[in-house]
């Protein structure tokens, strides 16, 4: 019999699948609380917060929003440090870009299992659907997640449970198998129909598109960072800065991060005590951060490149201020580099 | 009942929410937490987190480039 005293923790991404999976189990009288893991690579929030041009878009954390729609608690867990090993040494490799989806899902379920044991909950819910994702949600990889995470049959996937062997909560009668679903494949129609049935008219789309590591441009910048840093280890600031600005590497020993608009410039201001920065004092232009060890000659090259991205791009000469992290500043007059002299290969 | 401050400036969501969540777990029912953030999304996210976790938002708003949120810790079950 379904029993109110049984408790489940649900991985809430903020997308439709986890919303529905949670609702399906709540409908069976189970007490559910949500859990959401912040790896540092989550898309939502950050770019909206940084970029001025996105500021008319609604700013909300979809995981929180989903939890509020469901009327459940949500525990957001910082896993930035622990996630490094998942990203740097994925046992099952990467997807199309630097997305270690299978290891990532396994890691998150294992962290949910840890939380479950600490809080005396009974089973874990995910919104996975067989065939929905090319790496982590295949018939042959879904058992890997259950096995390698240690969750085993305490992992319930309500949206496709009828296509999988019965799990502990089903066998014990905590949830009725006939009240679960047998979705499969990439079509979103069954989920949209179920959302309509539950009366959910608004939800975030698309499922799974919430990680910067699935983005080629972002992954290229991360590879470049790893190639030019002494180790693949990273801090949150390192991976945040990959999300902002135009990245240009004119020399092996340094990279320029050039703000593309006011919001990015403002965000980058916060890093002026950690990086040498450039800005044009004779014309308006972007803030530029210099990542790397540079010579005076390198700074002149950087200044001429930076000048190309400001309002003085067609002037014969502009004044660039070189600001050092210790607060010292030095103006230099440079000619903006000719567009033909900017090597396409410099763009990261 | 005591009043505490939390500086979550320069953090982007969900980090301000995580900071609030972790600080709130150390406080007692009735305590006041005053939070300052610079991520404009915090003005929505921190109150949303409070609502679903049983804490009261006394005020939340933008002041210049900063978001200031004052909340009161609700009944805790942990």
Q: The CATH topology of the largest domain in chain A is what?
A: Rossmann fold
Number of DSSP E strands of chain B: 4
> What fraction strand of chain A?
15-25%
> Percent of residues of chain B in helical segments?
25-40%
Number of domains of chain A: 2
Largest interface: A-B, 27 and 19 residues
Structural description of this entry:
Chain A has 348 residues and is of the alpha/beta class. In chain A, strand 10 and strand 11 (329-334) form a beta hairpin. Chain A has two domains: 7-211, 3-Layer(aba) Sandwich (Rossmann fold); 244-346, no CATH class. Chain A has helices spanning 16-26, 46-50, 62-70, 80-88, 101-119, 142-149, 168-171, 189-198, 216-228, 236-241, 262-269, 296-308; strands spanning 7-11, 31-38, 74-78, 123-125, 155-156, 246-251, 254-258, 276-280, 288-292, 318-323, 329-334. Chain A is elongated and about 75 Å long. In chain A, the strands form two sheets. Chain A has a six-stranded antiparallel beta sheet with strand order 6-7-9-8-10-11, with helices on one face. A five-stranded parallel beta sheet of chain A has the order 3-2-1-4-5, with helices on both faces. Chain A starts with 6 loop residues before the first strand and ends in a 14-residue tail after the last strand. Chain B has a single domain (3-72), classed as Translation Initiation Factor IF3. Chain B has a four-stranded mixed beta sheet with strand order 1-2-4-3, covered by helices on one side. In chain B, strand 3 and strand 4 form a beta hairpin. In chain B, helix 1 (15-24) packs parallel to helix 2 (42-53). The longest helix of chain B is centred in the middle third of the chain and has 12 residues, at 42-53. The radius of gyration of chain B is 11 Å and the shape is globular.
């Amino acid at each position: 019999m379904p029993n109110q005293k049984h408790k489940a923790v649900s991985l809430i991404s903020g997308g439709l699948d986890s919303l529905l999976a949670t609702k399906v189990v709540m409908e069976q009288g189970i007490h559910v609380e949500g859990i959401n893991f912040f790896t540092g690579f989550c898309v939502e929030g950050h770019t909206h917060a940084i970029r001025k041009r996105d500021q008319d878009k609604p700013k909300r954390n979809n995981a929180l929003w989903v939890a509020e729609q469901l009327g459940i608690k949500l525990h957001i867990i910082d896993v930035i440090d622990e996630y490094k090993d998942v990203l740097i040494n994925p046992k099952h490799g990467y997807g199309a870009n630097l997305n270690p989806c299978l290891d990532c899902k396994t890691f998150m379920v294992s962290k949910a299992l840890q939380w479950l044991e600490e809080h005396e909950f009974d089973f874990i819910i995910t919104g996975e659907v067989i065939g929905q994702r090319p790496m982590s949600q295949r018939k042959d990889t879904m058992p890997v997640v259950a096995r390698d995470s240690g969750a085993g049959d305490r992992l319930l996937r309500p949206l496709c449970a009828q296509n999988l062997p019965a799990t502990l909560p089903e066998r014990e009668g905590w949830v009725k198998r006939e009240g679960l679903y047998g979705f499969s494949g990439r079509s979103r129609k069954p989920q949209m129909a179920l959302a309509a049935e539950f009366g959910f008219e608004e939800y975030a789309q698309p499922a799974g598109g919430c990680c910067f590591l699935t983005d080629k441009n972002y992954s290229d910048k991360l590879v470049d960072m790893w190639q030019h840093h002494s180790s693949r280890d990273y801090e949150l600031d390192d991976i945040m800065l990959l999300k902002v600005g135009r990245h240009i590497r004119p020399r092996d020993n340094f990279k320029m991060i050039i703000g593309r608009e006011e919001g990015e410039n403002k965000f980058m201001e916060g890093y002026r005590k950690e990086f040498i920065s450039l800005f044009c004092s004779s014309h308006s232009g972007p803030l530029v951060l210099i990542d790397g060890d540079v010579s005076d000659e390198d700074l002149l090259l950087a200044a001429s490149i930076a000048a190309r991205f400001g309002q003085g791009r067609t002037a014969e000469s502009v004044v660039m201020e070189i600001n050092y992290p210790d607060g010292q500043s030095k103006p230099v007059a440079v000619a903006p580099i000719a567009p033909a002299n900017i090597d396409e290969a410099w763009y990261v | 009942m005591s009043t505490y401050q939390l500086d979550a400036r320069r953090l982007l969501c969900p980090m301000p929410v995580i900071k609030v969540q972790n600080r709130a777990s150390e406080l007692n029912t009735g305590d006041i937490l005053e939070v300052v953030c610079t991520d404009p999304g915090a003005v929505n996210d921190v109150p949303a987190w409070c609502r679903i976790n049983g804490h009261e938002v006394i005020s939340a708003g933008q002041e210049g480039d900063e978001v200031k949120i004052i909340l009161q810790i609700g009944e805790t079950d942990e």
